[in-house]
Design brief:
293 residues, Chitinase A, domain 3, 2 domains, two-stranded antiparallel ribbon, 11 helices, 48% helix, 13% strand
Length: 293
């Protein structure tokens, strides 16, 4: 069974900080969204009179890795609350001991604060900008863009030189079997399977290989060797197909995540352009680095 993936369309502009944050949008909890729910605001623990709310416990649950996040609430509740309490107690001791006065620790604390604020901004503001009409339009684009859903099944023979690849093409022209030659001559890991690579999309392979393969008709092989960082390839296409797009409701959440990531990246670009930023390149850092003792 083939599962259609949208991950190749995730981000089109340069990935800055919000491109990374977007991966966590699903885990970010909007406190304002739950402000009217008394149960969410309920105090579930106190430390010397300092409250810990159920809202915070739920937020921390949603920030767990997926394999833990899907556990039942009653399984997660006690360990997550314990972690919040332990962390808060240790943080209090850090303040008392003077660790919190360390400039680097303060920078790290500011970084953690900034990250939470940025994630909340993405969750509350950017996602609200994505309307149902926008999601419908993106789905229509995917339906029309069949190239993003094209797959081919191919075999290849990988060798170390252009001369060796040229000789293989000559032998294929003389009628020898592609899979047999792949088993005997290919240096790639697919050699025992006759060079069979199975089905793949354009972005699954390095550009030179992918371009050559997708330009071929079914049952045809490359008439000139194809160069990549791995060596020289002779490629034969066995089948082409276009994957059906799942119904919109099945991928609506995935589309919203993708569009949120795109919006976040564009917003980051805008903020980056407006701000006055001075930064040192790695070469400048190395030039100013002290000589090793």
């Amino acid at each position: 069974m083939t599962v259609f993936s949208l991950s190749g369309r995730m981000l089109t502009s340069p990935i800055k900080i919000f491109g990374i944050f977007a991966a966590f949008v699903g885990a970010c909890v909007s406190i304002t969204a739950h402000a009217q729910d008394d149960n969410i605001a309920k105090v579930v623990a106190t430390i010397d009179g300092e409250d810990i709310s159920l809202n915070l416990v739920i937020a921390m649950m949603r920030q767990l890795p997926p394999q833990y996040r899907d556990q039942p609430f009653d399984v997660l509740y006690d360990p997550v609350l314990d972690d919040i309490i332990d962390t808060r107690l240790a943080a209090r001791e850090a303040k008392r001991s003077g660790v919190a006065d360390d400039p680097l620790i303060q920078e790290l604390a500011q970084r953690a604060y900034d990250r939470v604020m940025a994630e909340a901004w993405i969750s509350i503001n950017i996602q609200q900008q994505i309307t149902d009409d926008m999601v419908d339009a993106r789905y229509a684009e995917l339906i029309n863009d069949t190239s993003a859903r094209e797959e081919i099944s191919a075999r290849h023979i990988l060798v170390d030189s252009m001369d060796a690849a040229t000789d293989i093409i000559r032998r294929l022209d003389d009628g020898e079997d592609f899979a047999t030659l792949a088993k005997a001559l290919s240096t790639g890991p697919s050699a025992p399977n006759g060079g069979n690579l199975g089905y793949f999309k354009r972005g699954d392979m390095v550009p030179s290989f992918s371009d050559a393969a997708f330009d071929l008709d079914v049952s045809k092989y490359t008439d000139t060797p194809v160069r990549s960082d791995y060596g020289w390839h002779v490629i034969m296409v066995e089948d082409k197909r276009t994957i059906d797009l799942p119904p919109l409701e099945n991928i609506r959440g995935q589309l919203i995540e993708i569009m949120t990531a795109e919006q976040a990246t564009m917003q980051a670009d805008n903020l980056y352009q407006k701000a006055k930023i001075r930064r040192l390149g790695l070469d400048q850092i190395m030039d100013n680095a002290p000589a090793p003792e």
